[in-house]
Amino acid sequence: SWPTGEFGGMGLEGAVRLGYRREMEAIEDPEERDAFYRKMVDRYYENGKATNMASFLEIDAVIDPAETRHWIVRGLKSLPSMEAKPSRAFIDTW
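RESULT FIELD:
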C-alpha cells in the first residue's frame, strides 16, 4: 500500500454512525454530538492508516509511490513463464 492508503471494513464515517449510534443518540446537544462524531471518525482514520495497518501485519508493506512500478514488475516476474501453445486452425461450423 501507499502511505496514504486507508483501510476499514466499510466507509469509516458510516462505521462510526453505525457503531456508535446509541452513544450518539444519547448526546442531546447537536454540537457535542457532532464533536463526538468527528473525534471518533478521526480515531478510525488514524487506526486505518496504511502505516498503522502494516504495524499490525494486516498488509505486507507500505511503499513509496515512486516504487510502484518496481513492485508491479517484481510481482509479474515472480510468475512462472507461460509456454506458447501451438495454434490450431479455427473452423467456424456455422
